[in-house]
Design brief:
Elements (H helix, E strand, L loop, with lengths): L1 E5 L5 H14 L12 E7 L8 H12 L4 E6 L31 H24 L15 H5 L18 H49 L10 E2 L7 E2 L4 H14 L3 H17 L3 H17 L8 H13 L4 H17 L3 H10 L6 H11 L1
Parallel strand pairs: 1-2, 2-3
Antiparallel strand pairs: 4-5
Helix pairs in contact: 5-6, 6-7, 7-8, 8-9, 9-10, 10-11, 11-12
Length: about 375
């Protein structure tokens, strides 16, 4: 969580403490209760700070540590009356301009023209069936030329480009701030979390093994330590149970792009979920195992069987067609990216049924 407070506030350090308190009071079901906080003090040179910047940063670093505090300076060139020209639109690299959104290739433009004609016909039919009054309210109807050409990222609707008040120096300062947040704050924090999870996992595994071997002699059947029964498909695991710790370790590894470590964690925990008949957890672990194989390059195993089993578990054991549809869409995108078009088409066809005509029509459209 990143907190931003300007140096022109009456008590910037107190504002940071207030924001942190509101975050603690928020009733949010976090994946991990240990949340990293990063504190950015914005110093706008066009406005005078009431407290010296050096004193403010000294108080922040003393309170939160230097690795989670950053001073972001803006409008530094305007302090002495200098007017630096605005920098380039920082959002342009993420958006297409009007020339790029036109017909790209001849073949594609022809296909778009045919599709546009078909959509116009459908829109006319819908308008006629509704009485022909006013404009069409069909949500599938084509946008007007002005609506299609206006891109909010480029500021075409308002005539003002986004980020026009940011100079080149301001944009550079923001990039440095984001880089410091990732390198000095986020990565070391997650690495510490992974080490802590490893240590807790080793401790819990040893403790569970001792308890399980002792209780096995007394009871012929019963739940494992750390597992509270809530039905065959979704038993309730404690937050510090080895299964949840291992799943959390896999998620952190996946986020940090350590796909081999993520695969090992997911592959190991899925067997525990399967033994406990926790099929919702089992299917999710299968899905992440397959995604780790798709994203990683150092593991010589095919990811398709894991996703195939995941979808079957969602459908047949969990009775969750929505999760099965989500997994199918992601699985098919992965198959298409690797050139397995026939396999993707077969899965699209498998997910069609007579009870959901709209879904089946969209899936058959993807098949074609």
């Amino acid at each position: 969580c990143i907190f931003f407070v300007t140096a022109q506030e009456n008590d910037p350090v107190g504002q940071f403490q207030t924001l942190a308190g509101k975050l603690g009071e928020a009733n949010i079901n976090w994946v991990d209760s240990d949340i990293m906080s990063y504190h950015v003090l914005i110093n706008d040179f066009t406005r005078k700070a009431k407290t010296p910047i050096e004193d403010l940063m000294q108080g922040l670093t003393t309170l939160y540590g230097p690795a989670t505090c950053h001073l972001l300076t803006l409008n530094e060139r305007k302090k002495g009356g200098e007017n630096e020209p605005p920098g380039p639109n920082p959002w342009r690299q993420f958006a297409k301009d009007k020339s790029q959104r036109g017909g790209d290739e001849d073949g594609r433009s022809a296909d778009v023209t045919l599709l546009q004609m078909a959509m116009d016909d459908v829109s006319d039919d819908v308008s006629g069936s509704e009485g022909g009054g006013g404009g069409s309210s069909d949500p599938l109807g084509a946008k007007t030329e002005e609506e299609d050409e206006e891109n909010p990222l480029l500021g075409e609707a308002s005539g003002k480009p986004c980020g026009e008040s940011l100079t080149i120096a301001d944009q550079s300062a923001i990039r440095v701030c984001i880089n410091d947040f990732v390198v000095r704050g986020l990565l070391p924090f997650n690495e510490r979390r992974m080490r802590a999870l490893n240590e807790a996992l080793n401790t819990r595994r040893g403790l569970r093994g001792t308890l399980f071997s002792a209780t096995k002699k007394l009871f012929s059947a019963g739940p494992k330590p750390g597992v509270a029964g809530k039905g065959p498909t979704n038993p309730g695991y404690l937050t510090d149970s080895p299964e949840i710790l291992l799943r959390r370790l896999g998620d952190l590894s996946f986020l940090l792009q350590h796909y081999t470590m993520a695969y090992n964690s997911y592959h190991q925990v899925k067997r525990d979920f399967q033994n406990d008949q926790a099929y919702n957890h089992y299917a999710a672990a299968l899905e992440m195992t397959s995604l780790s194989l798709y994203m990683g390059t150092g593991i010589r195993r095919e990811p398709h069987p894991y996703y195939d089993e995941c979808i079957n578990v969602y459908l047949n054991l969990c009775k969750s067609p929505l999760y099965a549809m989500r997994a199918t869409l992601v699985h098919c995108e992965c198959l298409i990216s690797r050139g397995y078009f026939l396999s993707a088409a077969s899965w699209f066809i498998k997910m069609t049924n007579d009870e959901a005509d709209l879904n089946s029509g969209l899936l058959l459209e993807q098949v074609s």
